[in-house]
Amino acid sequence: MTAVWEYLPYITWGVAWTFGLVGGGLAIGFMIGLPIAIGQIHGSEEIKALLEAYVWFFRSLPLLVLLFLFYWGVFPATGFKLDPLACSIVVLGLRSSAYQSQIFRGAIISLGEAQLLAARALGMTRLRAVFHIVLPQALRISLPGWSNEYAIMTKDSAITFALGVLEILTRTRYVVMATHEPLLPYFFAGGLFIVVTYGGTKIVNVVYERTRIPGLVGRM
Amino acid sequence: MPLGIFLAIVLAVARVYGNRPVSLLATGIVGLFRGFPAIVTLLIIFFALPDLGIFFSPYWSAVIGFILVTGTYQSEYVRGAIQSIDVGQSLAAQALGMRKLEEVVHIILPQAIRGALPGISNEIIYLVLYSSLASYIGVEEIFAVARHFNSLQFRPIEIFLTAGLIYASMATACLAGFRMLERKLRIPGLEVAR
Amino acid sequence: MTDGDIVLKAEDLHKSYADNKVLNGVSFEIGRGEIKVICGPSGSGKSTLLRCLNLLTYPDKGCVWLEGEEITEQTRDVNKVRQKIGFVFQEFNLFNHLSAWRNVSIALEIVKKMSKDEARKLAMEELRRVNLEEDAHKYPAELSGGQKQRVAIARGLAMNPVIMFYDEPTSALDPHLIGEVLDVMKKLAQEKLTSLVVTHEIGFARSVADEMMFMGDGTILERGPPDELISNPKHEIVKQFFKRINELYRREGR
To answer: Could you give the 3-state DSSP secondary structure of residue A201?
Structure first.
């Protein structure tokens, strides 16, 4: 039994990789997702159709399938040689961009047209209006949905074990294979995930509260 | 899948209406299975439980695992829907002499389930996609078959794209099914808030 | 008025919410066939009183008797008691997912264990009584406020209660819809259905009530036949209240 205990730190180090996956994925998701959201609201019909197809694709295929598709198929085909970690981050990012775009889109829509109209009446170009007036408010409205996305991303990061990324679950599996004691490692891993998930959502909640616009009813 | 919905309802009702110990237990269960990644839950059931003497076949491990995962996620939607129901409905039921159980079953739940449907249908979609994880506990499902083909004939793009699209069409079919269900259950005059 | 047939008796009811003393010693009786009206400014505890009487809320102190049996005793089956009291809410509270006739019949099936057919027949009868037979298949969201409230009354009547409670039944209605509900209530009053009504509709009280009770600050400040109370109030607060009402009526030429 002592042998198993000693492996726990090894598993815990996986958290660093998990953060890498989550952080990278969310960042890519944000950088691509936000433009997508804006495109879906203000874009031409062709752009909207294209974006809708993109969103549909990355939301309708299982993460596992996407990982394999890109790692074994797409990247080699295009000549990029990516290691499992980088590939995972990219795939998680693309997938997240699809989900995040919907969150932002919903937030922008729920903000309503009024804000945009007022800004344009002052003479701002569409771009400036969106950037300076609509986005700051919409981003804040998005926070609850975004914290949900964080939670989902954290748990999805575990699926990258299929590519061998050295995050929590991969390490856990190695430990289980080595010690033949599945109970403790798996529950420990689960516990780690819970801590990371709830810790993160707590932080997002704090940000949400801190950035509360005085007078406006919160959107939780 | 239907069992998952049933579990969701039980958990949600327990959390809202149960006395403290029951409510806490339900909250704990929900927290646990929403916190664990689905894959971890599956692995625990199939690999770890045997250590405690509980054996399940790959298929049943997957079924139980998914029921736990989807049931707990859905209970959040059901709980939200229950809490959004106007308290007046409850008062009217009580004023007529209904017992708590009768009130919940006949008055609250029919309305709550309609409200929770959009969220539940979302969850079912996830379920369809995450079923791919079951391949790692030995279930011979789509992804497992795909990997098998890939090892025989290395054509990853075609194979995985096809597999992915199969999942996608199943998900889309489910979505259509739920849209129909929502339409059938619609209360005339009352639009389900999206 | 036979002294022996008191349907409802309340004695020294007290109720507080947090630091707020809402009911401060309320006592009264209602005999069979009597119509009593409670009026008074908002916040005087009128709604709370009704809810204490059918035990939707429990009074902190005091007792209530229904047909001679004390219902505030903790061992009583609350649900059986509530079956004997019909309750009409200000916000209607119709079951949104059920059609009008289903709203009326559901409690009959579940609580009174009637068969589906019996319940349906009785429901339609009650809806006829409130002039809503034609709209029986409509859902609450498709009905006007006045129609909804009449369904609510039918729902309460169907249980064959010994007394009807009305909690500001017309306060949530558009003015042109108030009439249809008051007409139904008047009709029922003429049939001598024992009723306790909380309302602002002084005209209604004048025409059908046997006694009017004015509530303020959690107690009954004054009580008596409606005409007397309205034209000749003794308590200062009551005087002020009716003075303003009379001014309002005079100014609008009602």
So the answer is: helix
